[in-house]
Amino acid sequence: LFQAAYKTKPGFLCKLLNGSEELSPQSVLASLGENLDHLTVVWMRGALQKRQHAFNPAFAAVKSDGSVITWGDAARGGDSSRVEHRLQEDVVQVVGNGYAFAAVKSDGSVITWGSANGGGDSSRVEHRLQEGVVQVEGNGIFCGAAFAAVKSNGSVIIWGSANAGGDSSRIEHRLQEGVVQVVGNGYAFAAVKSDGSVITWGFANGGGDSSRVEHRLQEGVVQVVGNGYAFAAVKSDGSVVTWGDAAKGRDNSRVEHRLQEGVIGVVS
Question: How many domains does the chain have?
Fold first, then answer.
């Protein structure tokens, strides 16, 4: 159901409500039985995606007619003249990562511009970005940047700097289906799958290596949040799992006993 919703409005995230009850990608519809009322789609994020972890010396403005206007540092996305003819209409989402921009169009295709090494050049994966993209997430750090795109079939496409998550070859076989969302924190990416498992890649100390808590990320994850250095995952039992830089969010030992149950959301 989530994949079907995303496909109708590429580039936007949503909530599914059964009456007033929010469903998660892990909800088992059969278990709702007679309680299944009517499903409502609530769109959560619009055309401009905020990237808190990246300093971007350029701007991109999306207009109501779906066109895009850019200005600022030309090398980092302020100059979109190379793809300007493709940015005249139908853009529904633009994501920046500090080095480049990626625009998702209503047909699910993606257009990129800016620093080539920072994700502005997507030619290596261009054939996979022609249709079906429902989400793009950007990562940007001082020494590189990358993008991750989720398609309507649940696969993930990666491009950009390897040190910012642009290389997913280690776990690529696990990103071919079932992914419902990708979250970036600047250094790494975390993909949430429809079975509630989480897959990570990118800079190991920044959250790309979740092996320490991998056994707790096999099922039941309903939310993942990144803070620039680490990740926190909320599970369906209300517990929280963290990984990444210990000094900047991974180490929750001081309050760990209070994070074993009852958590309904995490923000950064």
Answer: 2
Tell whether 172 and 182 lie within a shared domain.
Answer: no
Place of tokens 């540092």: 73
pTM of the model: 0.82
Task: Enumerate residues 6+ apart whose C-beta is below 8 A from 81.
Answer: none
Q: Round the CA-based radius of gyration of the chain to a whole number and report it.
A: 18
Report the distance separating Cα 198 and Cα 216, nearest Å. Answer: 9
Give dist(CA 122, CA 129) in Å, integer: 9
Work out the percent of the chain whose per-residue pLDDT is above 70.
82
Element (H, E) at 39: strand 39-43
pLDDT of residue 24: 66
DSSP string over 237-267? TS-EEEEE-GGGTT--TTTGGGSSS------
Region for residue 20 given its phi and psi (left: phi exceeds 0; alpha: psi -120 to 50; beta: otherwise): alpha
Tokens standing for residue 130 = 């022609």
Domain check: are 96 and 157 in the same one? yes
Q: Domain range spanning residue 155?
A: 1-176
Q: How far is CA 72 from CA 94, 116, 249, in A?
A: 16, 17, 33
Q: What are the φ/ψ torsions at residue 260 (nearest 5 degrees)?
A: -85, -20
Distance CA(166)–CA(146), nearest Å, equals 5
pLDDT digits (tens, 9 = 90+) for 87-110: 999 898 899 999 999 999 988 999
User: CA 202 to CA 65: how far, in whole Å?
Assistant: 36
Provide the CA 95 distance to its chain's centre, in angstroms.
10
